[in-house]
Write a structure and sequence with these properties.
Structural class: mainly alpha
Strand order of the largest sheet: 1-2-4-3
Shape: globular
Order of helices and strands: HHHEHEEEHHHHHHHHHH
């Protein structure tokens, strides 16, 4: 019963903070050199080959159920079908790679942690990264330290302080890009409780008490975190400057509150009810 959003464009769901952070990233003088070195050394190719060697590719004869969910998500978000893999890892997560040959990797533990409906949200999230053009910058960020060594002291004379600033800019964009991808996840699963419930399941992790989790209590926790007193907000700021600036993802409670805010703003319904196929 999920609606296929034929003609959907990334601009329909990209968050404003993602757009601004990417604009700032593109203004870095060193970015063209990083992109050049990324392709020059074939890093995209090697990352693709390594993933194929270490993971199991899904298809009609391999993990058929997951593959069918994947195909449905691609149809919903109007995205060309990337390759889908499952890898063995006890820590639930998923990621996207492949600039020229996009692929999505689901860790085995995430399949044990989430329901089928929540897997729609996760795959939709990763497809959102692809549709929004995040993969190149994500891949460069994954290889940023060696790339900075390649282009830094020998070419642009970058010191450690400048390198830290570049790394911080990539991390800031990466965090904001997650809000965009979360919106794509919601558009794929098309149920707010499913999207927030998946976030809860990944935040708590798999355990024999998973049946006792309560989504309403978790959403209340997310709201309480956003509405903390000035003294607590000061503590959050100190924590961020000490540790959080290096994080690639926002806090789970922040993501839960933000996807709820976006849904309640009416933007989600506007997209679901739109007919993009008639757009000129």
């Amino acid at each position: 019963m999920r609606k296929h959003l034929i003609g959907l464009q990334a601009s329909h769901f990209v968050s404003e903070t993602d757009r601004k952070a990417l604009e700032a990233l593109k203004k870095l003088p060193v970015l063209p050199m990083l992109v050049q070195k990324f392709y020059e050394h074939g890093l995209d190719r090697w990352m693709y080959v390594h993933n194929m060697a270490m993971s199991v590719r899904c298809g009609p004869k391999q993990f058929k159920t997951i593959y069918e969910i994947h195909r449905e998500c691609c149809a919903i978000l109007d995205v060309p079908e990337p390759e889908l893999y499952v890898s063995s890892n006890p820590f639930p997560n998923a990621f996207t790679g492949g600039v020229e040959r996009p692929y999505i990797v689901l860790r085995s533990s995430i399949l044990d942690t989430l329901t089928d409906d929540q897997i729609f949200d996760v795959i939709g999230h990763e497809l959102g990264h692809i549709k929004a053009g995040h993969v190149l910058y994500q891949s460069i960020a994954d290889c940023l330290k060696p790339l900075l060594e390649m282009v830094g002291r020998r070419t642009l004379g970058l010191g450690d302080i400048a390198s830290i600033g570049i790394l911080a800019a990539f991390r800031e964009w990466s965090r904001q890009a997650e809000f965009t991808a979360d919106r794509a996840g919601l558009l794929a699963c098309q149920n707010l409780e499913t999207a927030m419930g998946g976030n809860l399941a990944l935040s708590a992790g798999p355990s024999r008490f998973s049946h006792e989790v309560n989504l309403d209590a978790y959403v209340d926790q997310a709201r309480a975190y956003q509405e903390m007193s000035p003294a607590d907000n000061f503590g959050k700021a100190i924590w961020f400057f000490m540790y959080g600036f290096a994080a690639t993802h926002p806090m789970p409670v922040s993501r839960t509150k933000e996807i709820e805010r976006w849904y309640l703003s009416g933007a989600y319904d506007n997209i679901i009810n739109a007919d993009f196929s008639k757009a000129s």
